């Protein structure tokens, strides 16, 4: 498989300002889509209302590996069953994928 570098002549020039505006527009679209799929969590703490949206930053490979290791450790610590319906496993998976 061959990788081809883009030819400068192939692309249209654009101002830095329009590129930034397009980037902000795309970020806003991503935020709206994520909020529609996973609505922000609202909770009250110390008499204040907090709103926590889902993170817009993609997880790194290391983040995923660390999370999987923590999940495995907690499953073992709490003696979750490996087969069948297990409320402990369900609780831990809900916590894991709720983040």
UniProtKB/TrEMBL annotation:
InterPro entries: Axonemal_dynein_light_chain. Residues 1-12 have a biased composition (Basic and acidic residues). Keywords: Coiled coil, Dynein, Motor protein. The keyword Coiled coil applies. The keyword Coiled coil applies. GO terms for cellular component: axoneme; ciliary base; dynein complex. Residues 1-27 are annotated as: Disordered. Pfam families: Ax_dynein_light. Transmembrane segments: none annotated. One of its GO terms (molecular function) is dynein heavy chain binding. Belongs to the inner dynein arm light chain family. PANTHER family: AXONEMAL DYNEIN LIGHT INTERMEDIATE POLYPEPTIDE 1, AXONEMAL INNER ARM DYNEIN LIGHT CHAIN 28. This is Uncharacterized protein. The lineage of its organism: Eukaryota, Metazoa, Ecdysozoa, Arthropoda, Chelicerata.
């Amino acid at each position: 498989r061959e990788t081809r570098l883009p030819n400068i002549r192939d692309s249209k020039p654009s101002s830095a300002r329009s590129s930034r505006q397009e980037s902000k527009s795309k970020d806003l679209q991503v935020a709206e889509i994520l909020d529609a799929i996973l609505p922000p969590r609202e909770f009250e703490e110390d008499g204040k209302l907090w709103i926590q949206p889902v993170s817009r930053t993609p997880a790194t490979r290391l983040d995923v590996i660390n999370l999987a290791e923590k999940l495995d450790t907690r499953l073992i610590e709490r003696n979750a069953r490996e087969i069948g319906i297990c409320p402990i496993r369900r609780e831990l998976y809900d916590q894991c994928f709720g983040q």
